[in-house]
Design brief:
This protein is an all-alpha fold and 444 residues long. The protein is built from 22 helices and 2 strands. InterPro entries: dGTP_triP_hydro_central_sf, dGTP_triphosphohydrolase_C, dGTPase, dGTPase-like, HD/PDEase_dom, HD_domain, PHydrolase_assoc_dom.
């Protein structure tokens, strides 16, 4: 792989454009994402803790903004060195281009996540695996398509959303799309290489496979097999930005909620800061929240430096596809991050409120899917629709209804139903579920 090719501003279905120094295509990507409907919905999607009770914990929206901020810094720092190493790039690119690509990809990294956190992914998968209204669809789809449905993946849904015309036709550059794609493989592969971080999950559905293939070819990504490629090097920076933020900021939220003690939190942040930790200076800050916020900010700075240094040290191996490990799994602070993760699993992610949110997701999402896929299937069969299914269809957006017809592909119809349900906010999903089940009625 080479950097000039990896920094392509090509957009799907469009002719390449000259690089605009005043406002690059990559900066346009950032703007397109931040003004899009799917991004705005992240303000009412759970990050870890339920949203209504605590106004200071992170939603998917605030998390994405923070990851993007860290990502921009990582990209610009790496870009500054890369432009010195590869002077031929200076005529076409600036340090801001590297920052904008990582910032835009980071901004979108959670855009495909359904309501109710990661349990929402499991709830969608289990609907097709175990629920009577879902599992019978296996006979209508291919093995690859069934794997997409029964192993629903937010990363692949994100790639789908970013490339669907009805989501304002974002048409991001290939460079941003590739940096977004942490898992450049399909869902069903013959053998997963567990040593490669990029193969841990999958990054696109069959419905977007031709688009992903075209992007990978244009980027010059290394092909390892049928619909399996190497990562774009900057995907490692996007992943690092996400890892840094969720590890450190979930810990901060956990401390503020009283799930993790103040002393334990300080000790973990101090483990990252090492000689930069100044207890006396910290204690001069009156507010405990301000103390924790200060330590979190300083710790982010340390992890950015360590991650960027490793990225640049491994540049050659990244371009050859040899290095395929999460940056935060290989830096000096990795042991402390592992301690933070262990504590977070024990005290934060398994807190009662988090478990209650997950339990709700396992009822709400399958309930919504049952209503909509049943109605869609009946419409596709061309028979007389029951009144119940007519009502369910009318609740779906007009663009989704247009995708459901007698001559439609069953897989695509099911994916359209998933688009609708997974795109809902937590509040919308709960409200619509209660109305469909007759638990509540519309106001007014």
């Amino acid at each position: 792989m080479n950097w000039e090719q990896l920094l392509s501003n090509q957009r799907s279905g469009q002719k390449p454009k000259e690089h605009d120094i005043s406002r690059s295509a990559f900066e346009q990507d950032y703007d397109r994402i931040i003004f899009s409907h799917p991004f705005r919905r992240l303000q009412d999607k759970t990050q870890v803790h339920p949203l209504p009770e605590y106004d200071f914990v992170h939603t998917r929206l605030t998390h994405s903004l923070e990851v993007s901020s860290v990502g921009r810094t990582l990209g610009k720092r790496a870009g500054q060195v890369l432009l010195e190493r590869h002077k031929e790039l200076k005529d076409k690119f600036s340090v801001h281009d590297f920052g904008a690509i990582v910032a835009a990809a980071s901004l979108a990294h959670d855009i495909g996540n359904p309501p109710f956190g990661h349990s929402g992914e499991d709830a969608i998968s289990e609907f097709f695996l175990y629920h009577d209204q879902g599992k019978h669809f296996k006979e209508y789809v291919t093995d690859w398509q069934w794997q997409d449905l029964t192993n629903f993946e937010g990363n692949a849904q994100g790639f789908r959303i970013l490339n669907k015309e009805r989501y304002q036709g974002l048409k991001l550059t290939y460079a941003t799309l590739a940096a977004f794609s942490k898992y450049p493989r399909k869902s069903l592969i013959d053998s997963q290489d567990k040593e490669r971080r990029s193969q841990k999950k999958y990054g696109f559905f069959q419905s977007e496979s031709s688009l992903f293939s075209a992007m990978a070819e244009d980027m010059g990504l290394i092909k390892y097999g049928d619909n399996v490629w190497s990562r774009h090097p900057m995907a490692f920076l996007v992943e690092a930005a996400d890892d840094i933020c969720y590890q450190l900021i979930d810990l901060e939220d956990g401390c503020r909620l009283g799930l993790v003690s103040y002393d334990d939190t300080v000790e973990l942040y101090a483990g990252i800061l090492q000689e930069k930790f100044d207890k006396k200076k910290l204690e001069r800050i009156e507010s405990f929240d301000e103390r924790i916020g200060t330590l979190r900010a300083l710790s982010i700075g340390v992890l950015i430096e360590e991650s960027c240094t490793l990225f640049l040290d491994e540049e050659e191996n990244l371009l050859k596809g040899i290095f395929d490990t999460a940056l935060t799994d290989t830096i000096k602070s990795t042991p402390i991050l592992q301690d933070i993760e262990k504590l977070s699993i024990e005290k934060i992610y398994r807190a009662r409120t988090v478990m209650e949110t997950e339990a709700a997701g396992f009822e709400v999402l399958p309930g919504l899917l049952a209503a909509f896929v049943t109605a869609a299937h009946e419409k596709m069969n061309g028979g007389v629709l029951t009144k119940k299914n007519q009502s369910a269809l009318r609740l779906m957006p007009s663009e989704v209804r247009r995708e459901i017809s007698e001559d439609a592909n069953m897989y695509q119809v099911l994916m359209s139903c998933i688009d609708f349900v997974s795109g809902m906010t937590d509040t919308h999903a709960i409200s619509l579920f209660r109305k469909i089940k007759g638990i509540s009625l519309p106001n007014g």
